[in-house]
Amino acid sequence: KAGVTQTPRYLIKTRGQQVTLSCSPISGHRSVSWYQQTPGQGLQFLFEYFSETQRNKGNFPGRFSGRQFSNSRSEMNVSTLELGDSALYLCASSQSRDVAPNEQFFGPGTRLTVL
Amino acid sequence: AQTVTQSQPEMSVQEAETVTLSCTYDTSESDYYLFWYKQPPSRQMILVIRQEAYKQQNATENRFSVNFQKAAKSFSLKISDSQLGDAAMYFCAYRGLKTSYDKVIFGPGTSLSVIP
């Protein structure tokens, strides 16, 4: 079974631009979560989608948004990029809350650099 | 709010020796899962071991085992017969079954070095 894939793997943008990151979960997984990883803040939860609905959102500004498609693929968008948005963005998929222990499987991440 | 603390930013161990990584957490929930994830230099996050809070028996996966103390809210990871490939950042993580079910809360991580 193929793992979680994320595209692109690396991205360089300038301040003020917007960016869209993509995540394809493991086949059969319906839940997709996004995390931001930085040296200073560590791993921080962004949001989680299940069946095209956002179920939970972390403490991030409205510039960070996401969506999930009917095939469970997910995208996250960051508008008006700031230097502090430079980070590794990790996507994780899991089956569903009804399947214990509902562990998450992570993708390789997208490294975003904002200049 | 739930929090996860890892008090050891860095640890080192000699190859073939045993090392224990510490993790404590704070929660008011009674049902939850705890995880240890490994993130090698490739940055791919890999699940090492998981523990269900309702299980008293400590989880074990080959050379990896945990010491789960629910009352003390402690969840340490023991790596036996350490190998060079164990060198990585290790994250302790918490996932509640109710209020925080939809997100995993990670600790700040412990960087483990393995000395040949």
Distance between the termini of chain B: 41 Å
Helix content of chain B: under 10%
User: Low-confidence parts of chain B, pLDDT < 50 over ≥5 residues?
Assistant: none
User: Spans of chain A with pLDDT under 50 lasting ≥5 residues?
Assistant: none
By helix and strand content of chain A, what is the structural category?
Answer: mainly beta
Largest sheet of chain B: 6 strands, mixed
Radius of gyration of chain B, taken over Cα atoms and rounded to an integer in Å? 14 Å
Using only CA atoms, what is the Rg of chain A?
13 Å
Secondary structure: number of strands of chain A: 11
Q: What is the straight-line distance between the termini of chain A?
A: 37 Å
Question: Outline of chain A, from the CA principal axes?
Answer: globular
How many strands appear in the DSSP assignment of chain B?
A: 12
Mean pLDDT of chain B: 92
Q: Average pLDDT of chain A, to the nearest integer?
A: 91
Task: Work out the oligomeric state of the chains in this entry.
Answer: heterodimer
Largest sheet of chain A: 7 strands, mixed
Please state roughly what percent of the residues of chain A sit in beta strands, choosing from under 5%, 5-15%, 15-25%, 25-35%, 35-45% or over 45%. over 45%
Largest interface, with Cβ-Cβ < 8 Å? Answer: A-B, 24 and 22 residues
Query: Outline of chain B, from the CA principal axes?
Result: globular
SSE-based structural type of chain B: mainly beta
Question: Brief overview, please?
Answer:
Chain A is an all-beta fold and 115 residues long. Chain A contains no helices and eleven strands.
Lay out the secondary structure.
The complex is a heterodimer of chains A (115) and B (116).
Chain A: E1 5-7, E2 10-13, E3 19-24, E4 31-38, E5 42-50, E6 53-57, E7 64-68, E8 74-78, E9 87-94, E10 105-106, E11 110-114
Parallel strand pairs in A: 2-11
Antiparallel strand pairs in A: 1-3, 3-8, 4-5, 4-9, 5-6, 7-8, 9-10, 9-11
Chain B: E1 3-5, E2 10-14, E3 19-21, E4 24-26, E5 32-39, E6 46-52, E7 60-61, E8 64-69, E9 74-79, E10 88-96, E11 105-106, E12 110-115
Parallel strand pairs in B: 2-12
Antiparallel strand pairs in B: 1-4, 3-9, 5-6, 5-10, 7-8, 8-9, 10-11, 10-12
